[in-house]
Amino acid sequence: MSDTIACASHGQASVSFCCVHLAEGSGLGVIHGGTDAEPAAICERCDSACSGDWASINTSDIKAVCVFCFWELVGKNERQPAPLTVDWESAAVDEMHHRNLERQTRLFADYPKYWYDLDQKQFYLQTGSGVSKWSMPLELIGSFHEEKKSWAWAWENDSLPQGVRASSNWLKGQIELVRAHSLIQSRPTGLAEAWHLALKAGWLWGASSVYRVPHGPLHIFLRLGEETAEQ
Known about the structure:
231 residues; alpha+beta; 2 domains; 7-stranded antiparallel β-sheet; 5-stranded mixed β-sheet; 7 helices; globular
């Protein structure tokens, strides 16, 4: 079990470590380390200066932060492959529609069942008898309640496991990096609007596809990564 730290923004939470440059900057590039339970990261400049030997980094250049802040700082410092264009939102929706359709045709259509594990962050496609054939890493983007006409980003939802809320802060940081603040402020009032918002977020998050899981009036939107065949 990881140690915890008291955070002014997030209360008592699991501790993570990053270099002071990631804590203070943006767009610096990120080198990951640490463990799943206690992630760590340094900027590209620090990694170059220490030639990959993290043990040689001065402790004064390392900062302990809560896991929520950590993933937001990481998202804020991951490099974008190219600057966003003025009409990037419509292009993102079109691209994610294409990715979803391709995956639906190639893979999902052959499997009538699925299940997912938020704690383990895995999504599974299953045969009719319930045998898992494919798995995909997942991240929770957000949820929309049709009756309440309300949207909640994953990082806002206190009912979710800490690890799920914390890693979703990567998306929050990435949105801040590309100055797409209107996404955070968006509050869709219909399912179609919620879909479009989730597709834009999924595109920023490098999703292979975005999947909607209905639970009555509640709809959960998942970012899915590359699939792996189950043994």
